[in-house]
Write a structure and sequence with these properties.
Elements lengths: L2 H20 L2 E2 L4 H9 L1 H9 L3 E6 L4 E6 L19 H20 L5 E4 H9 L8 H17 L3 E3 L6 E4 L3 H4 L2 H5 L1 H14 L8
Antiparallel strand pairs: 1-3, 2-3, 4-6, 5-6
Length: 203
């Protein structure tokens, strides 16, 4: 292999690694980066294993990320990818969006799920205590939507800021078993609302 080709391969691997360490890699955002990730898959797995991480790839869905290794050998290593505690409303919103995604996949051949912000607000309002201040409730729901976007499970459309695309990454984090237990999770949430113990600020 020529020297310049070696440099190109090395640079390609480095770019993939840097991007993975920053967050999720999506095929639809950078197809060349995605192709490099698939090409370097075995090398990436070997590399990140040494630092207590593992590569998760959903090739059909077009996304990949790094997570802390679950192997017993890595148990004593410090955690590089931190788990985050989500508030009840954010967890609820994720569950509702995941169910919406499942319904969409069952009824449509279109891979992208686009939902209007107003539809999301109405969907979530059903499960939140309304109180006397409608505007404040809507503001709170907007905050929860922004949190979901920050976590990478959704994004606003560039051309229509009031439209939200639900990222397919959500399927990997809220699985079918979680959906089957949705009613139980919801009962826990509604119980906490009624008792006034919900923590709106925890993340």
């Amino acid at each position: 292999m020529a020297e310049t080709e070696k440099e190109d391969v090395s640079n390609g691997f480095s770019i993939v690694m840097i991007t993975l360490l920053k967050g999720v890699v999506y095929a639809d955002e950078n197809i060349r980066l995605w192709q490099n990730l698939l090409s370097f898959q075995a090398r990436i797995r070997d590399y990140v294993r040494e630092i207590g991480l593992e590569l998760i790839v959903y090739e059909d869905e077009g996304f990949a990320w790094l997570q802390t290794s679950t192997s017993q050998e890595q148990a004593d290593l410090p955690r590089l990818v931190m788990k985050r505690q989500l508030s009840y409303p954010v967890s609820l919103l994720l569950a509702l969006l995941r169910r919406k995604l499942a319904e969409h996949d069952a009824s449509s051949s279109e891979s992208r799920l686009i939902i209007g912000r107003d539809e999301i607000v109405e969907m979530v309002k059903t499960f939140l205590p309304t109180g006397s201040n409608e505007a404040r409730l809507v503001d709170q729901i907007d905050t929860h939507i922004n949190k979901v976007i920050e976590l990478g499970f959704a994004r606003r459309l560039r051309t229509e800021n009031n439209k939200i695309e639900v990222r397919r990454l959500l399927k990997a984090f809220v699985d079918a078993q979680w959906l089957n237990d949705f009613d139980a999770h919801l009962k826990v949430y509604l119980s906490s609302v009624q008792s006034g113990t919900t923590d709106e600020s925890s993340e």
